[in-house]
Amino acid sequence: MAVVSMIVNGREVSAEVEGRTLLVEVLREGLGLTGTHVGCDTSQCGACIVHVDGAPVKACAMFALEAEGHTVTTIEGIAGADGALSPVQAAFKEHHGLQCGFCTPGMVMAAEALLKENPKPTEHEVREYLEGNICRCTGYHNIVKAILAASGQAVSAPV
């Protein structure tokens, strides 16, 4: 057993973990941050995306000990301090970018990273960036529209 210390959503935290413990396990089971979902356990679906030092990371593919000394942001950490939705979260709501909601945290976290890297992506760039995220419900159309809307680009009404 070892102790891992990191900053999660602006708060310093520590947890005792085994070397094989995944970051997603510490977030969900140790810290109660269940917005980070486990969808496949194989790093294929993207439901577990968090930001580590601002970069998107699949938390099911990162050992907790690798997060030592780093800053981790989960879906719970991107809303405003007053609980107001982030622009991406608001756009997902407004443009019906979710159905069952299972993939939504990972999609939102991926979108946040994309818009930080490329503030005005094209539809093709959005679709390409989301390649590592699987949604079994929406067909991606409204997710893409939501991300474009969050970037300040005009999109047609939700379908």
Note down, in words, how this protein is organized.
The protein has five helices and five strands. A hairpin with a 2-residue loop joins strand 3 (49-52) and strand 4. A five-stranded mixed sheet has the order 2-1-5-3-4, sandwiched between helices. The relative contact order is 0.16. The radius of gyration is 16 Å and the shape is globular. It has 159 residues and is an alpha+beta fold. It has two domains: 2-77, Roll (Ubiquitin-like (UB roll)); 87-150, [2Fe-2S]-binding domain (DNA polymerase, domain 1, Orthogonal Bundle), CATH 1.10.150. Residues 2-78 form the 2Fe-2S ferredoxin-type domain. Keywords: 2Fe-2S, Iron, Iron-sulfur, Metal-binding, Oxidoreductase. This is (2Fe-2S)-binding protein. It comes from Histidinibacterium lentulum. GO terms for molecular function: 2 iron, 2 sulfur cluster binding; metal ion binding; oxidoreductase activity.
In short:
By secondary structure, the protein is an alpha+beta fold.
Helix vs. strand class: alpha+beta
Radius of gyration: 16 Å
**How many separate helices?**
5
Helix content: 25-40%
Describe the secondary-structure layout.
Layout: E1 2-8, E2 11-17, H1 23-30, E3 49-52, E4 55-58, E5 71-73, H2 87-94, H3 104-117, H4 123-129, H5 141-150
Parallel strand pairs: 1-5
Antiparallel strand pairs: 1-2, 3-4, 3-5
GO molecular function, one term: metal ion binding
Domain 2Fe-2S ferredoxin-type: 2-78
Keywords: 2Fe-2S, Iron, Iron-sulfur, Metal-binding, Oxidoreductase
Descriptive terms for the model:
single chain; 159 residues; alpha+beta; Ubiquitin-like (UB roll); DNA polymerase, domain 1; 2 domains; five-stranded mixed sheet; 16% strand
